[in-house]
Task: inverse folding
């Protein structure tokens, strides 16, 4: 299943790759069009589910899942690049663990891992990510921001949760917990789902012997994306009773630190706008409608 919003070309390329799979199990291809300004075109071998409102990732997947007939849902972001053996590989590697949520290794087009396996979110993960002075150290701060560094090529590892760019999910278990929580517009819905599944004894398994290339962030501008991510993290903290006010306070404090740091950079000749950046950060943290 491929949620779609934006230019159909990337989804069409992914679906062309799905058609070319070798030794693949029986499958159906579903596109969930989330009221895209550029609708996904009809195709004979694709079931296109057309939503009447734009509800975000989780809502699009739920709509597509309602049309699915097979035992597992394979949810794929449209900006993935897969090889011809992807379907057979992920089914084979996941089989010993079923029922489980499984995901391949995500690799950027620069060849770097995107750390598809993660630890359950902690406030400190988000606050450390928010701090501009730590930006240059982030390549060495993976565990500190929640990345599970056991998730490397060749490793098969049970993890807290898996990034939602490519997820294989047992359909019965997905339906048993009510699917994705549509209160999340974009981001955190996959960790929320996997936490609910974990309560039913369904693990999340990183499959490092299967890899896909992933671009990420292609259907939205950066300011909107930061707000989506931030508001989703605050909502997750509220849903799971993890003191959301503490997270908000921590992010605002980090923004004050960023303001002073950026002011010093401006004084040293860097072409940045500290106050404008500070206001954008506070706007991302402030409550309000996310769309």
Result:
């Amino acid at each position: 299943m491929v949620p779609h919003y934006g230019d159909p070309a990337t989804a069409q390329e992914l679906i062309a790759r799905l058609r070319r799979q070798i030794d693949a199990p029986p499958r159906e291809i579903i596109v969930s069009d989330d009221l895209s300004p550029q609708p996904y075109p009809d195709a004979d071998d694709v079931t296109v589910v057309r939503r009447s409102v734009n509800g975000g990732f989780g809502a699009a997947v739920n709509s597509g899942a309602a049309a699915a007939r097979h035992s597992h849902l394979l949810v794929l972001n449209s900006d993935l690049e897969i090889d011809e053996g992807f379907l057979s590989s992920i089914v084979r590697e996941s089989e010993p663990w079923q029922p489980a949520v499984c995901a391949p290794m995500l690799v950027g087009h620069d060849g770097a891992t995107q750390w598809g396996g993660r630890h359950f979110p902690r406030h400190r993960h988000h606050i450390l990510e928010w701090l501009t002075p730590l930006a240059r150290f982030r390549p060495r701060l993976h565990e500190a921001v929640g990345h599970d560094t056991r998730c490397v090529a060749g490793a098969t590892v049970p993890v807290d949760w898996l990034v939602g760019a490519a997820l294989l999910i047992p359909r019965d278990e997905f339906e048993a917990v009510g699917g994705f929580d549509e209160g999340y517009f974009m981001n955190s819905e996959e960790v929320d789902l996997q936490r609910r599944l974990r309560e039913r004894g369904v693990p999340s398994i990183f499959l490092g012997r299967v890899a896909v290339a992933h671009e990420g962030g292609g259907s939205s501008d950066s300011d909107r994306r930061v707000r989506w991510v931030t508001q989703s993290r605050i909502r997750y903290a509220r849903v799971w009773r993890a003191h959301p006010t503490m997270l908000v306070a921590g992010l605002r404090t980090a923004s004050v630190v960023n303001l002073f740091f950026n002011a010093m950079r401006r004084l040293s000749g860097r072409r940045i706008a500290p106050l404008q950046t500070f206001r954008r950060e506070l706007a991302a943290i402030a409550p309000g409608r996310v769309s």
